Predict the structure.
Amino acid sequence: MENIVAVISDYGLKDTYLGTVHGVIRSVNPDAKIVDITHNVRSFDLVDAAVKFKWSFKYFPRGTVFLILVDPDPSSEPIIVSTEKYFIVCPNNGVGSLVFKEEPPEAVYRITANHYFIEGKGNFRGRNILAPIAAELAKLQSAHHLGEEIEISKLKRFRIPSPVELSPGIFETIILDVDSFGNLILNMEYEGKEPKSIEINGIKVEKVSEKFSGFQKGELFVSINPEGHFQIVAYMASAANILKAKRGMKVKVEF
């Protein structure tokens, strides 16, 4: 048993929120290994959280407890989802939607073990409810004593629009993410065929390269990100700034 709690949140690092979550986990489970996947999810943004979760979960060992603390709707009930390999502790708000396509849920539990909750002022259920449950779950490796099992059909999910073929070999998709380097990551995965061009804001990018070398500073090219998605890159610069592009914008991909 690895005893790992892997955390994703929109808390950032400026405030004390993340540190107190760590403190609660270690108070309940002193041997827990806490992994901070990211705390820079866009505030209240479930799609961003779902994407970051999808891109990270498969690199963790069996038994990892994922604690997802992006919680824009306080009315969504806290749950535990168990899969063949993992546990997810989160609000029932769809944040696991993309992961569940690859790692299907086997059981869902409404968290009821309130004797594990900590007392705290204000509305901070990430610290007061979800963190101690995740810590206990990492020890127990079973959700049976932490909640009441509910139908899997009650698990909320959402979909991200798939690429649309406008005409033979020409697709429309969106910018799924803009990373900290300004790379534009598309909602289209590499499936063995390189594009002839990708067009955004009237500018076509036609160079394709697996290597980040041999370019002039600011030169645009198409590459594949570590999770297999096409991305537009500006060598040693921000493609987002050069192309005046942002997340959610439509792009055309020609094969």
